[in-house]
Amino acid sequence: MLNTRLLLYVFIFFVANGIAQNSFIFQNKSIKPGTKENFKIPVVSDKDSTYIPVTIFHGLKSGPVLGITAGVHGYEYPPILAAQQLNQKINPTKLSGTIILVQIANVPAFLGRSPFLNPLDNKNLNRSFPGDANGSITERMADVLTKEVIARSNFFVDIHAGDAPEDLRSYNAWYQSEALPQVSRKGKEMALAMGFDYTIIFNIKKERLQTPSLYCSQEAFHRKIPSVDIECGKLGIPDKMETNRIVDGMFSLLVHLNMMSSSSNDESVSTKPIIVAKRFTIKSLSTGLFYSDKKAGDFIKKGEPVGYITDFFGNTLENIKASQNGMILYMIGTPPINKGETIMNVGMIPTM
After folding, report:
1. What would the mean pLDDT of 176-193 be, rounded to a whole number?
2. Is the pLDDT of residue 112 over 90?
3. Residue 9, beta-bridge partner list
């Protein structure tokens, strides 16, 4: 009788303070408050099959649903390793709301060590949203992620890194559009709260919102869900520092969203980032071998030589110069280069 009364008093306390919540239903399974559950969502096409590993953290207290995807590109390892850490570090008994964490969105690319593309159908998952339930395996994976993760989220984060050939300077970014001012503002607040020293604005024109999103996080924004991208890591290297940087940023976001108290984790960070509103790209006019002494994070000036391209016999085909001042956000970090490819993406830093 005493235990029954105690449980009743606890329940009344939670309800009176507006912090109790119901179970969370995912894949037809009821997840109780204060618990977590792991799922393998099957994805099957006419030719191929795979699965998507997802962890649900359902907090004791009520709050928003945060969707997180890692491993949309399976060769980008720091996001995937960060998701593994989050799986162990997030305590659902100290959580308000619910987290839908996609541990590895693109398992075939991860296990196949395949940069950019799903080796089962040679399609880029991050160019396939919102997906197609009757399409190829990649299109069906995008469809599952859209319906089971993105559509159920109040806030959304997609975590990336520099893929196998990409040297990258870590940053995060938020989506912004004049058509969605409140969603844009919340996305900005999310990005600024994560502690990255550089953050990028992804400006989306109103008419772009009427076309297929293609990108994972942009699909969330199209659905009026505040959305942030993380880019942290380079050249497909499973770097511990970059992995930890992602984890710290995610805990800072949880504190910002009032899903976790700052005292419950020592992972949260704080800094005032430099906001990059404009970028430019340098593209290749030739196919061959790319040479450069530059690296991601370097500042370059208009007219400065930043590299050159030779043919397969060592003859110079193209000398590459910076078209404007800026900082290299990411660039090709390996020799192969094809005509039309992006050599560098450069942020125009306000102080330059």
Report:
1. 98
2. yes
3. none
**Which CATH class name applies to 279-347?**
mainly beta
Tens-digit pLDDT profile for residues 61-78? 999 999 999 999 999 999
User: What is the Cα–Cα distance from 252 to 193, expressed in whole angstroms?
Assistant: 6
Q: Which of 237, 234, 264, 232 is nearest to 249 (CA)?
A: 232
With 0-12 / 13-18 / 19 or more C-beta atoms within 10 angstroms meaning exposed / middle / buried, residue 178 is exposed
Q: Determine whether domain 23-275 maps to CATH 3.30.70.2740.
A: no
Measured distance CA(142)–CA(131) in Å, rounded: 4
- One-letter-per-residue 3-state SS of the chain: CHHHHHHHHHHHHHHHCCCECCCEEECCEEECCCEEEEEEEEEECCCCEEEEEEEEEECCEEEEEEEEEECCCCCCHHHHHHHHHHHHHCCHHHCEEEEEEECCCCHHHHHCCCCCCECCCCECHHHCECCCCCCCHHHHHHHHHHHHCHHHCCEEEEEECCCCCEEECCEEEEEECCCCHHHHHHHHHHHHHCCCCEEEEEECCHHHHHCCCECHHHHHHHCCCCEEEEECCCCCCCCHHHHHHHHHHHHHHHHHCCCCCHHHCCCCCCCCCEEECCEEEEECCCCEEEECCCCCCCEECCCCEEEEEECCCCCEEEEEECCCCEEEEEEECCCEECCCCEEEEEECCCCC
In 3D space, the residue among 76, 77, 65, 70 whose CA is nearest the CA of residue 53 turns out to be 70
Burial class (CB in 10 A: 0-12, 13-18, 19+), 9: exposed
- Over its C-alpha atoms, the chain yields an Rg (Å, rounded) of 22
**How many angstroms separate the CA atoms of 40 and 53, rounded?**
5
Domains 23-275 and 279-347 share a fold: no
Distance CA 331, CA 282 (A): 9
Question: Residues of the chain with pLDDT > 90: what percent?
Answer: 90
**Rounded Cα–Cα distance for residues 115 and 163 (Å):** 6
Enumerate the domain spans of the chain.
23-275, 279-347
